[in-house]
Amino acid sequence: MTQRRRILVVDDEESICFAFRRYFESRGTAVALAHTVREGRQKYFELRPDVVFLDVRLGDGSGLDLLDTLRRDDPTACVVVITAYGSLETVTRAIRNKAFDYLVKPLDLDRAGEVFARALAGQHTTPQPDAAQEPPPAPVATDQTAIVGRSAAIQEVFKRIGRVSQADASVLIHGPTGTGKELVARVIHEHSRREVRPFVTVNCAALPESLVESELFGYAKGAFTGAESAKPGRFEMAHEGTLFLDEIGELPMSAQVKLLRFLDSQTIERLGSVSPISVDVRILAATNRHLPDEVAAGRFRADLYYRLAVIQIEVPPLRDRREDIAMLAEHFLAQLAPGRGISDEAIAALRACDWPGNVRELRNAIEHAAVVSGTGPILPVHLPEAVLAGPDRPLGTDRDRLIGMYLDQVRPGADGLHRSALAPIERAVIARAMSQASGKQSAAARLLGIHRNTLRAKLRELGLDRKT
Question: Can you tell me the distance from the alpha carbon of 432 to that of 267, in angstroms, rounded to the nearest whole number?
């Protein structure tokens, strides 16, 4: 008789426990429940479940501490971490402590079922840890190395960072301009064993072709006129650390050959020298180009592409993670103008924008608004014209109209901003979202970054036709 599979759910939310039990038991899997760290540990060693679904925030402590305990006492434990607070540090700690996977609330139970099936299929490996060597704690992110967001798209990036940071394999980071590819590279470095060693950045597109090789590989004394002494290149500067090659698609073919040679031999030769120099460098590269197309066009070496793309990380455009816009805006505002606020109407306007310049453009918009708004909160009228102008409208049309609405409604001498001044702005933003969504409330709610029920209430409150 086949033994029935079992999962253990450790979560203090009754609704989560109920949902797991109903979903998995209807599919023939036994479900055990625990609500605290202490109860979770006890039930794990009593029942030895096939998979543990473990919440991070529990009433008597952190689920990640329980993960540490299970990894230490039973290296074969298969643990899936679940949380509503999917920060980079949480994801990285979970992955570094050999969590099988990481799920973010609100949970997709079909996704949880797929993870469970993969675990049962034996698609995970759990190496025996060195008992004398605890995994190092993840470093705390600084403002410069904080990747902000809770969307599913950015959580996938977090998981990739957690998995690749402890390896030495080359990583190719790709995504549109302004998405934060260099930031991803810095975070990988700062979560790696090389974190205290140099992180050296080279913008391949900014180097003149005649200087690329000398900048990267250095030159020997007498290599050319004016080379009165030897000079190390960026590879030697990054020894025992990380070399980040930004815009790798712009690298000239001659430098591509030398880079490939380094990846094969871990040695370089300075310009004008034939003596190899051994260097210990991890290569991270980034591009906004589709390198397979560059390979097909003969502008990029196929063998170099395959050596660089051992691991790939796709950084999503901001339009694919609109639910992160409010958090990003508040993060940038805290950096640029601490203590200042931003109105819900301004957040709605930010969410309605397509952001062709991605996160970099959003930061610039917040900086612009922080200056224009003086010492008060940021309102829609303080945002740049490009944020308020639709793709098919002349730049400034929406902004001028909204400013006019604002000035018409504000009462002279009033303390602060009267609610009646905000209503026309809110109405205009919601009407525009409904128009862009062709009257579909669910699509408009996604554009605005609010729940569909919230949008329905706003439509009634503002007297807007639901089919506007």
Answer: 58
Structure tokens at 466: 């639901």
Angle between helix axes 452-462 and 441-448 (nearest 10 degrees) is: 100
Decide: helix, strand or coil at residue 62: strand
Q: Are strands 61-62 and 79-83 parallel, antiparallel or unpaired?
A: unpaired
Tell me if residue 8 falls in helix, strand or coil.
strand
Residues ≥6 apart with Cβ < 8 Å to 251: 204, 212, 245, 259, 300
Q: Which residues contact 140 (CB under 8 A, 6 or more apart)?
A: 89
The span from the CA of 287 to the CA of 177, in Å, is 8
- The DSSP output letter for 2 is P
User: Tell me, what DSSP letter sits at residue 321?
Assistant: G
Pairwise CA distance, residues 322 & 421, whole Å:
26
CA 251 to chain centre: 26
Instruction: Establish whether domains 6-120 and 143-314 are of one fold.
Output: yes
Using the Cα atoms of residue 104, residue 105, residue 110 and residue 112 in order, give the sign of their dihedral.
Answer: positive
Q: Are 437 and 426 in contact (CB under 8 A)?
A: no
Top CATH class of 319-462 equals mainly alpha
Q: Is 406 buried (19+), middle (13-18) or exposed (0-12) by CB count in 10 A? A: middle
CATH of 143-314 given 3.30.470.30, 3.40.50.300, 1.10.3720.10, 3.40.50.2000: 3.40.50.300
**What CA–CA distance (Å, rounded) separates 277 from 198?**
18
Are 200 and 237 contacting, i.e. CB atoms less than 8 angstroms apart? yes
Could you give the percent of the chain with pLDDT greater than 90?
A: 46
Number of H helices, E strands in the chain: 20, 14
The C-alpha atoms of residue 383 and residue 141 are separated, in whole angstroms, by: 29
Region 251-279 average pLDDT: 91
Q: Is the pTM of this model over 0.70?
A: no
Residue (of 236, 138, 153, 150) closest to 187 by Cα position: 138
* Rounded distance between C-alpha atoms, residue 203 and residue 459, angstroms: 49
Decide if 408 contacts 374 (C-beta within 8 A).
no
Give me the sheet containing 171-174, strands edge to edge: 199-203, 242-246, 282-287, 171-174, 311-314
- Residue 285 is inside which H or E element, if any? strand 282-287
Mean pLDDT, range 2-17, rounded to an integer: 87
Top mean pLDDT of 121-135, 156-170, 177-191 is at: 177-191
Q: What is the pLDDT of residue 163?
A: 85
